[in-house]
């Protein structure tokens, strides 16, 4: 049995002269040393023989003459275009892209150009700029409106770029796949409809002056944000919504039928009893009014006002409303949330499956391009690996590349099998730093002073948890002084907190300091407070003229919340809030899309029907400029500023409707909301459909899906905190090799192919110091600058995104080389009933 070479040492990288022979259409090694010999060393002064032994390439010199460089044996089956294609597939797997593109060299280069960061960010800018045009189009704030031809010109510029991106994507995509995608058709249809709308608007505005022209295509603008592939997170959220709605439709239909049935009963019970509301409005006069009143009751906005006239007539009528609330509010609304959560969880798992399988298929395609036969199996050799990495992670050192293959190499042969190659995307996502990356600016520029005895004492004190406890106590004392309005100590506390910031900047360096949220918060608040105090002192401002300092010092007290992160009872809750931060932004974008659509529609329907005037000026027009509001509660309680006369005001109204869809002041007996009733008064009862649709889309569906996400994230976080660590194969291997930040040596546990899976592993007694928690500094923080060599930054399980945790859990359930079904749609197909077990229920 031949002996395998030793694993590559990270400090054995040898720089060689760029003296190569170029062969046409083949890859030539520009700075590549020869394959390592059996002892793990690399010798640049050898000629490369084309024979391959069990040890790898056979390194010999033919006649003792100076060596001649040529094409490596492992690269003869590859051309430059093949390596570019393989690197593109690896980058796709790392970035989570799911494009199906043509593999000819011209199309691959076009595909790589499509994903250039400047084109992607330019697309984001154009989409946001296109959406922001509504701020300056009629109706707009006073002084903001621009001529319609100017806004159309700017919108045409945006559409031209959208067309370019659409055609660019169509060029490199496989035609049958591209035109089978509904999202591409939607982009094309929206562009065409927008141009048609522009033409119609120009004709309408110049031919007919008696009516107001309408830009009916403006609500379609957010569809560009949803359907362009660059917004994959928002697309995924909308895809989840699209798949959830049909599955909960049966529950929504039963709920609406229940409302219709109870409305019919209410009409028969109360319409002929000559009952009226406290404000004189008829009580359940028509069937549509009955439906509306009872639907509002589901939101509890008009409870108990809607019941009181009937209850005053007979106390027994309270049973009708009690039964209605129990059935339609308590039961059906709970079932709607449960159905949405179940559907969301199933669709989320399918999304995770599709992401994992898509990543593996990309890496498998790259492996098939790069592989060579060796010892009866297909592998990627060290030479091919180095060429690949130079394209995937350019400008990285040879030591960096060698360390990556060391993690994936299971037997020390400097070759990677397919099973390990499929872990490459996970490996590339981990941060790998060198010594200079972990040194602070002062340590690099003034190493003698920074590493002196006194400096080491200062750094030791700052890194100790007692340092943080002391300043947390000072924050508490400062809060006490603020609460009792003792301003004399403001400069003392500002000086103390400034000293804390300076010491942290000195110890951690600016780069590490500003990575922690609370450090950034402290720096901004205290820095602004110092500036505000200085201005207040210099200009001798009075308390009434300058109150910014008090606000800033009060914000400082919020830092006490981080102390709760060290308390076990609160840790899961706070950690869930931190981990769902990125997804909150995603769902915020989803809600913004719905807000924008309904805001534009509301502007077209209700614009200039309600105006705001100073209520206390004698010459101000009464009733919000509309006599239809005379005597209404909408005007009585000064709601005139809640209107749809521009985009910003429209968004504010929708936020108010979301917080409490039908805004009601509890002590006012109203059948309708103050907001809805005002717009109904100036139009007709048909306007209720607008508020009903908004409630259905944004409250019942979108917000419930967001709640489902919160529930899933909390359950996942709670489970992981209770069970143990969730480590991928790559993280396990890094810990075994002792290559993680804070490890003092390799973990003494052999990793075989049999446990090449992600799994929940119990906490072990390891000689490891975890990477410091990025959002809690209540424990002592190790000095990472003392780490030697290249080190991986392994995140705690609590620092991983929910999606990453779910992917690691799913990868542990499937075969290491399983690439999923050939047809991706099969992932979303229900496989039918399974055997019922306790695990599937709980």
How would you describe the overall organization of this protein?
This is Two pore calcium channel protein 1. Helix content is 55%, strand content 4%. The protein has 842 residues and is mainly alpha-helical. It has four domains: 100-228, no CATH class; 251-430 and 729-741 and 787-831, no CATH class; 447-566, Up-down Bundle (Four Helix Bundle (Hemerythrin (Met), subunit A)), CATH 1.20.120; 576-699, no CATH class. Strands 3-4-5 form a three-stranded antiparallel β-sheet. The chain has a two-stranded antiparallel sheet with strand order 1-2. α8 (232-270) packs across α25 (581-606). 31% of the residues are buried. The model is unreliable at 1-70, 661-672, 748-780 and 836-842 (pLDDT under 50).
> With helices defined by DSSP (H or I, 4 residues minimum), what is the helix count?
32
Count of DSSP strands:
9
Give the helix proportion (percent range): 55-70%
Distance N to C terminus: 51 Å
Strand content: under 5%
Uncertain residue ranges: 1-70, 661-672, 748-780, 836-842
- Averaging pLDDT over every residue, what do you get? 76
Give a brief outline of the structure.
With 842 residues, the protein is mostly helical. The protein has 32 helices and nine strands.
């Amino acid at each position: 049995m031949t002996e395998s070479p030793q694993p590559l040492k990270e400090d054995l990288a040898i720089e060689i002269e760029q003296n190569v022979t170029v062969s046409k259409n083949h890859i030539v090694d520009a700075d590549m040393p020869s394959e390592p010999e059996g002892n793990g060393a690399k010798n640049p002064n050898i000629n490369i023989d084309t024979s391959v032994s069990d040890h790898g390439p056979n390194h010999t010199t033919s006649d003792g003459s100076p060596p001649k460089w040529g094409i490596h044996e492992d690269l003869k089956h590859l051309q430059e275009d093949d390596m570019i294609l393989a690197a593109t597939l690896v980058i796709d797997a790392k970035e989570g892209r799911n494009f199906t593109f043509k593999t000819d060299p011209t199309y691959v280069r076009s595909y790589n150009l499509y994903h250039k960061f400047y084109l992607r960010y330019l697309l984001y800018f154009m989409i946001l700029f296109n959406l922001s045009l509504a701020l300056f189009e009629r109706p707009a704030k006073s002084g903001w409106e621009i001529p319609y031809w100017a806004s159309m010109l700017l919108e045409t510029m945006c559409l031209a770029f959208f067309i370019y991106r659409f055609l660019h994507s169509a060029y490199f995509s496989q035609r049958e796949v591209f035109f089978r995608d509904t999202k591409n058709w939607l982009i094309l249809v929206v562009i065409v409809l927008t141009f048609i709308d522009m033409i119609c608007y120009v004709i309408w505005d110049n031919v007919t002056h008696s009516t107001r022209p309408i830009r009916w295509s403006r609500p379609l603008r957010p569809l560009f944000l949803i359907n362009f592939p660059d917004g994959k997170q928002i697309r995924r959220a909308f895809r989840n919504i699209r798949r959830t709605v049909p599955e909960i439709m049966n529950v929504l239909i039963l709920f609406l039928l229940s409302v219709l049935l109870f409305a019919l009963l209410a009409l028969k019970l109360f319409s002929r009893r000559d009952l009226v509301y406290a404000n004189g409005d008829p009580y359940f006069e028509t069937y549509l009014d009955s439906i509306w009143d009872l639907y509002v009751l589901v939101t509890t906005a008009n409870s108990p006002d809607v019941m009181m006239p009937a209850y005053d007539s007979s106390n027994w009528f309270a049973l009708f409303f009690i039964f209605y609330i129990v059935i339609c509010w308590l039961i059906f609304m709970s079932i709607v949330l449960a159905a949405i959560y179940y559907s969301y969880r199933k669709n989320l798992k399918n999304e995770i499956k599709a992401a994992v399988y898509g990543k593996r298929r990309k890496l498998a395609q790259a492996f098939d391009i790069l592989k060579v036969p060796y010892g009866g199996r297909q592998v990627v050799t060290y030479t091919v690996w180095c060429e690949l990495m130079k394209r995937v992670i350019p400008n990285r050192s040879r030591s960096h590349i060698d360390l990556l293959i060391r993690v994936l190499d299971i037997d020390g042969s400097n070759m990677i099998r397919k099973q390990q190659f499929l872990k490459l995307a996970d490996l590339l996502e981990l941060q790998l730093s060198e010594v200079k990356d972990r040194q602070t600016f002062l340590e690099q520029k003034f190493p003698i002073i920074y590493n002196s005895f006194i400096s080491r004492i200062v750094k030791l004190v700052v890194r100790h948890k007692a340092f943080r406890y002391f300043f947390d106590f000072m924050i508490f004392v400062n809060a006490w002084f603020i609460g009792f309005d003792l301003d004399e100590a403001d400069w003392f506390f500002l000086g103390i907190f400034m000293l804390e910031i300076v010491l942290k900047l000195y110890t951690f360096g600016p780069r590490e300091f500003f990575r922690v949220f609370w450090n950034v918060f402290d720096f901004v608040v205290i820095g602004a407070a110092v500036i505000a105090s200085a201005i207040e002192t210099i200009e001798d401002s009075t308390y009434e003229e300058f109150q910014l300092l008090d606000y800033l010092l009060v914000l400082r007290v919020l830092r006490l919340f981080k102390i709760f992160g060290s308390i076990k009872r609160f840790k899961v809750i706070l950690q869930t809030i931190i981990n769902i931060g990125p997804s909150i932004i995603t769902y915020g974008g989803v809600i913004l899309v719905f807000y924008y659509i309904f805001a534009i529609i509301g502007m077209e329907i209700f614009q200039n029907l309600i105006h705001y005037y100073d209520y206390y000026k004698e010459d101000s027009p009464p009733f919000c400029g509309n006599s239809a509001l005379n005597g209404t509660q909408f005007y009585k309680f000064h709601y005139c500023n809640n209107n749809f006369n521009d985009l910003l005001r429209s968004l504010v109204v929708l936020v108010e409707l979301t917080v409490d869809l039908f805004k009601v002041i509890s002590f006012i007996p109203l059948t309708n909301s103050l907001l809805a009733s005002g717009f109904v008064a100036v139009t007709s009862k048909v306007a209720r459909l607008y508020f009903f649709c908004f409630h259905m889309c944004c409250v019942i569906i979108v917000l419930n899906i967001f709640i489902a996400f919160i529930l899933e994230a909390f359950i996942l976080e709670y489970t992981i905190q209770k069970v143990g660590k969730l480590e991928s194969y790559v993280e396990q291997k890094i810990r075994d090799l002792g290559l993680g930040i804070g490890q003092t040596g390799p973990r003494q546990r052999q990793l075989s192919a049999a446990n090449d899976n992600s799994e929940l592993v119990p906490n072990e007694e390891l000689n490891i110091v975890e990477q410091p928690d990025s959002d809690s500094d209540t424990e002592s923080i190790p000095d990472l600058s003392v780490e030697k060599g290249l080190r991986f930054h392994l995140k705690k399980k609590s620092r991983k995104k929910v999606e990453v945790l779910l992917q690691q859990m799913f990868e542990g359930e499937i075969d290491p080389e399983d690439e999923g079904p050939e047809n991706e749609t099969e992932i979303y197909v229900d496989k039918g009933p399974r055997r019922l077990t306790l695990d599937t229920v709980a």
